[in-house]
Amino acid sequence: MPELPEVETVVRDLRPLIVGRCIVSVRVGSKKLRKPWEQEWADCVVGTTPLAIRRRGKWILVDLDSGAILLVHLGMTGQFTAVPAGEPAPDHLHFTFALNDGSELRYRDTRRFGSVQWIASDALVQDAFGERLGPEPFDIPAKPFAEALRSSRRNLKALLLDQSLLAGVGNIYADESLFRSGLHPQTLGSSLKPKDCDRLRLAIEEVIAKAIDGRGSTIRDYIGGSGLRGGYQDEFTVYGRTGEACVNCGTAIEMIRVAGRASHFCPKCQKRKN
DNA sequence: CCGACGTCCTGCTAGC
DNA sequence: TGCTAGCAGGACGTCG
Hints:
Elements: H1 4-18, E1 23-28, H2 41-45, E2 50-56, E3 59-64, E4 69-73, E5 78-83, E6 93-99, E7 104-109, E8 115-119, H3 125-128, H4 142-150, H5 156-161, H6 171-181, H7 194-213, E9 254-258, E10 261-265
Antiparallel strand pairs: 1-6, 2-3, 3-4, 4-8, 5-7, 6-7, 9-10
Helix pairs in contact: 1-7, 4-7, 6-7
The chain binds a DNA duplex (16 and 16 nucleotides) through residues 1-3, 34, 58, 73-77, 92, 109-114, 130-131, 152-154, 158, 161, 163, 170-171, 219-220, 259-262.
């Protein structure tokens, strides 16, 4: 499940492999992704050169020398990789951008929850994001974050998954951050004390930073931009550890559904506040 | 306006 | 052994 740390790893991996290399051809698969690829976009892309690649939330932005942007979302199973010439084509390969050094920039996505779009200019990217994206979870503005949490009657799990509150957190790092802050996923935002908001904010920043250091987490499909698996899955405290011992107290980790998502927590370290 | 829930998609797996 | 129901979840549409 590519969340911020996985997407950041892809971007860092791809940067030295694609920047400055002209796109000489585009091959598009027949199956539709979440956002359809317009046929005329191929002509817009061929002949351009990536000048930069960056990340915003879970989105990847490839800045082309035409001023346009390739906007990529990995969804659940998306893989965005650069491979040397002559690599055999795998299943579920939806885009192949041939580069002028012979290598290929590829987008593969088994479940097709992701998307690849061509956006004419930087000014139009915000619209493509859909709802406004919240801040990156590095230096989260403390006061607005606490106010958003405390003014909401939604539970913490739903709040952390909301990309307009905070960009880049998904199911795995929401669970890991809640454990780190000692908060129960079903606790309502409105029942938090200012101190709880601070603990949660810092826990998110720490979890995300460590996960980036570990090159993200590979559960099944995720690989980085050069094809390498992640390493942070070995550091999970609660996610996917149902029935296993809590690293703090030894109590068996439990799994419940919150906000429609599997949510893992320690019933002793994370007590509900409401 | 807000929050909850269903939908998309494929592959793996638990359970009979 | 072989089959199938259920689950995985990011973003978004719909419903109450």
